[in-house]
Specification:
CATH topology: Protein Transport Mog1p, Chain A
CATH class: Alpha Beta
CATH superfamily: Mog1/PsbP, alpha/beta/alpha sandwich
Distance between the termini: 33 Å
Number of helices: 5
Strand content: 25-35%
CATH architecture: 3-Layer(aba) Sandwich
Order of helices and strands: HEEEHHEEHEEEEHE
Shape: globular
Largest sheet: 7 strands, antiparallel
Radius of gyration: 16 Å
Length: 198
Amino acid sequence: MNKHLIIILVILSLGLMLFPYSANAQTQLEDLTNTFNDNSTGFTIHYPSDWQVASNQQLETIFGPAIEELQDNNTDMTIEEIGKPLLILYPKQPTGANIMVMYQQLPSPMTSHSFMNSSLMSLPVDIIKPSNISSTSIGGLAAFKVDLTDIVSNTVLTQLYVTKNSTNGFIIQYPANDELELQEIQSINSIVGSIRFN
């Protein structure tokens, strides 16, 4: 199975199920006072104090089995080539909002467009339907945005594809606007807008 497909299916299957929705919880839009920085990839994101980063243990629990299976089947590949979860951000009071970032060392130089295309071409079209593809930018780099609908659950997730130096691929994912309240959309837009690549 294509490594992009497995990574995307793992990401999609987690989707909104990771953090249950609570109708009474409210996300307060605050200054982005906290920072997550990954020195190895040069990725930086800022987030408000009412959001938190999933621990390494939580990431391992969520992604560990899928990554181990990929490594077992592709023993010559490193975790960076397979793709690794960089972080999951979510409100301290669960609202259904979350942001997941995956990182992948690309096998050959790619643009953000070719990175997105290679990932989308491996999707099972009878289960996942891409739509609303558009160009954008993240942290000063060209990026592509796509909505992915899981036909079975009717869950819609937005994914942003960006490459840094043509060899480092990032997938930033969050619930699509139709899945969220206005405050959650504003929080996610502010957080995603804070992303920088060093």
